[in-house]
Amino acid sequence: MQMRTISITDEYHDMTVETVLRRAFSVSAAYLSRLKRRPRAMLLNGAPVYSTRRVKKGDVLSFDPADGARLAIRPIPFPLDVVFEDAWLIVVNKPKHLAVHPARDPNEATLENALAAYFSGVDNPHPVSRLDKDTTGLITIAKSGYVHTLMKAVQADGGFHKTYLAITRGVPKQSHCFIEEPIGVLPGSTYQRTVRADGAPSKTECIVLRDLGDRALVRLVPHTGRTHQLRVHMAFAQTPLVGDWLYGERSDRIDRPALHAETLSFLHPVTHERIDLSAPLPDDMNVLLK
Fold this sequence. Notes:
alpha+beta, Structural Genomics Hypothetical 15.5 Kd Protein In mrcA-pckA Intergenic Region, Chain A, Pseudouridine synthase, ten-stranded mixed beta sheet, four-stranded antiparallel beta sheet, 6 helices, 16 strands, elongated
């Protein structure tokens, strides 16, 4: 991962290295603490520098945005469908039945295990958001903790947008609607969610794309990010996802909930480019449309 560099102007003249890194690069206090412990992680005019050093106009300040060491994730080779990649981020079209985080079985390949094998040097997988094990589609991974923090700020500012395609059992009553029901943990469960009055505010937009009589292809837009939100809201609307064994019924035509992260759009936190990506509907969902 390349160094991030700034030429000191009047704006930062006579500030400390720490202040410049915080203001110019949004370096957090926790990450700055790690930089201080790494040799040559902060350079002023090409030489190592303490964070308390004051900079002058014309100086060149650099820092290393990498983690500095590999995370304790076992590399397990697994074929990846890479949709986008640069020095800072990678976006993968995740297949079904692949968990994002390492599981109890150390021999089970997960997305993080696969990325640990895919990356070279000291790049580490830091998922920016998550997808359920059986959900397919686009997922964004930062290559360092620093970039992960920047991406989380993009999310918090409303600059990270995803849409999903789903196939429902039954057809929603309205062609375009919003489901705004609070979601919380189902009493007696640590995993399953449900609509409940004391749950967290949740909002899902639903657009019917194709009415197939006994089912429908819909586009779902999550305006909040609760666990299982799309599945819970569609089940609440009495149109659960086909194959959703947890919130609806199993299907003999698909072995998972018919849900796919189709599009992704965000402003890159380092290059400031607009990134717009899409992933086609997977084969098992296409079969359901025939």
